[in-house]
Design a protein that fits this description.
- The structure is a single chain.
- With about 425 residues, the protein is α/β, with parallel strands linked by helices.
- The chain has 2 domains: about 55-280, Aspartate Aminotransferase, domain 2 (3-Layer(aba) Sandwich), CATH 3.40.640.10; about 295-415, Aspartate Aminotransferase, domain 1 (Alpha-Beta Complex).
- The chain has helices spanning about 5-15, 15-30, 45-50, 75-90, 100-115, 140-145, 160-170, 190-200, 210-215, 250-260, 270-280, 285-305, 330-340, 370-375, 380-395, 400-415; strands at about 35, 60-65, 65, 95, 120-125, 145-150, 175, 200-205, 225-230, 240-245, 310, 320-325, 345, 345-350, 365.
- The chain has a 7-stranded mixed β-sheet with strand order 4-10-9-8-7-5-6, sandwiched between helices.
- A hairpin with an 8-residue loop joins strand 11 (about 310) and strand 12 (about 320-325).
- The longest helix has 23 residues, at about 285-305.
- It is globular and about 60 Å long.
- Pyridoxal-5'-phosphate binds next to helix 5.
Length: about 425
């Protein structure tokens, strides 16, 4: 670690020992657990350092060359580097790197292409979509007339016939594809054909799979979707932030929508960290990383299948598995809580056509991006599936004393896989 980073952590320890202690405790927690939350990752020390830099001190409303504050000589270069790298990594004509996070990025897309009351279409949240794809509790569901598609009951895969039928019936202005709990490849060309037929703008929200797309482990939406939104902190392994990418045709509308439409000053420290993450993503080793995420996800699918677990769609093409616990006789929530106590962190999730309530659903969502960053490979996935199974069986038998035994085994096991940015002091 650099001197600058050591100086920084030393100042925090003396200026605010309470927060310093909590950050250290969270580092230990992240290090000691097996983290299978599908939207999470471990960023590099370089990304951490950029995120914690003095770039946070600067206001830069506007875009390079047209700012509303002076002193942008350096910030303009930072933002242009991030934009250029996004264009190279994803092969897009335009990139806006200013959205504060994935949700505001999507809202900016609505602002650019639709008016309140217009019809939009996205995947239903309980089917694997995202709140911002028009779900009713979200602003996007309150301000727009949202229509939702889902998956086929027998295959667990996106029902493209339903997408086509709903699109023809409702003629939405925007069609969102992508989501938060889709274990299979998204068929961007098929979505593009439907969008073209009804005159809708296709938005590929690749928040979950951006790292796989960058690393060539999932087909790219570019050339099919006119607009691509993504967070930068999931499989892409950058800071918490987002980007909107598009064809040159939509560049102006998107930029205007982000600023001044929706946001004020960009978070320049985040922009710099996005640039760093994109440089990492352009490296050959990132291709290996992306493919290993998928190999691990498929190994985990096999290992869970072998132990009698049902997977929505039967398996995984990407970084995530969605486990349906119905046949195991335990809900997703008690299972997730037991696993957390046993040292395995993941989230309970609805499964398509869930018979249980959203806050007490039947599923577990399991992602491999974070454990792959630590260096784990296929053989480790079998161990993880074994621990998951033992914990769930213990939970069912109410043998809660087993959790700490398993947690102990796990904290020993993960010592061979240190995490960036934290170590035993
Ligand atoms: C995570 C996610 C978002 C929202 O990102 P936040 O940064 O949490 O606002 C939007 N769309 C999809 C598909 C996501 O997975």
């Amino acid at each position: 670690m650099t001197d600058a980073y050591e100086r920084l952590t030393a100042s925090l320890a003396s200026a605010d020992p309470e927060i310093e202690r909590l950050i250290d405790a969270e580092g230990r927690r992240q290090s000691e657990k097996i983290r299978l939350i599908a939207s999470e990752n471990y960023v590099s020390e370089a990304v951490l350092e950029a995120t914690g830099s003095i770039l946070t001190n600067k206001y830069s409303e506007g875009y390079a060359g047209k700012r509303y504050y002076e002193g942008q000589q350096i910030i303009d270069q930072v933002e242009e580097l991030a934009i250029g790298r996004a264009k190279d990594v994803f092969g897009v004509e335009h990139a806006n790197v200013q959205p504060y996070s994935g949700s505001p990025a999507n809202l900016a897309v609505y602002m650019a292409f639709a008016n309140p009351g217009d019809t939009v279409m996205g995947m239903g949240l309980p089917m694997g979509g995202h709140l911002t794809h028009g779900w009713k509790v979200s602003a996007t569901g309150k301000w727009f007339n949202a229509v939702h598609y889902g998956v086929e009951k027998d295959t667990g895969r996106i029902d493209m016939d339903e997408v086509a039928d709903l699109a023809k019936e409702h003629r939405p202005k925007l069609i969102f594809c992508g989501g938060t709990a889709i274990p299979r490849t998204v068929d961007f060309p098929a979505f593009a054909e439907i969008a073209r037929e009804v005159g809708a703008v296709l938005v590929a929200d690749i928040a979950h799979i951006a790292g796989l797309v960058a690393g060539g482990a999932h087909p790219s939406p570019v050339g099919h979707a006119e607009v691509v939104t993504t967070t930068t902190h999931k499989t892409l392994r950058g800071p918490r932030g987002a980007m909107i990418m598009s064809t040159a045709e939509h560049a102006k509308a998107i930029d205007k929508s982000v600023f001044p439409g929706l946001q004020g000053g960009p978070h320049n420290h985040t922009t710099a960290a996005i640039a760093v993450a994109l440089r990492e993503a352009a490296h050959e080793s990132f291709r290996d990383y992306a493919h290993q995420i998928v190999a691990n996800s498929q190994a985990l699918a096999r290992a869970l299948n072998d132990r009698g677990y049902d997977l929505v769609s039967g398996g995984s093409d990407n970084h995530l598995n969605l486990v349906d616990l119905t046949n195991k006789g335990i809900g997703g929530k008690p299972a997730a809580k037991a696993l957390d106590q046993a040292g395995i962190e993941l989230n309970f999730n609805t499964v398509p056509f869930d018979q249980r309530k959203p806050f007490d659903p039947s599923g577990l969502r399991i992602g491999t991006a974070a454990v792959t960053t630590r260096g784990m490979t296929e053989g480790d996935m079998d161990l993880i599936a074994g621990w998951i199974d033992r914990t769930i069986e213990a939970a069912k038998a109410d043998k809660t004393d087993q959790y700490s035994t398993i947690a102990g085994e796990i904290s020993e096991f993960v010592k061979q896989y240190p995490i960036p940015g934290w170590s035993e002091s």
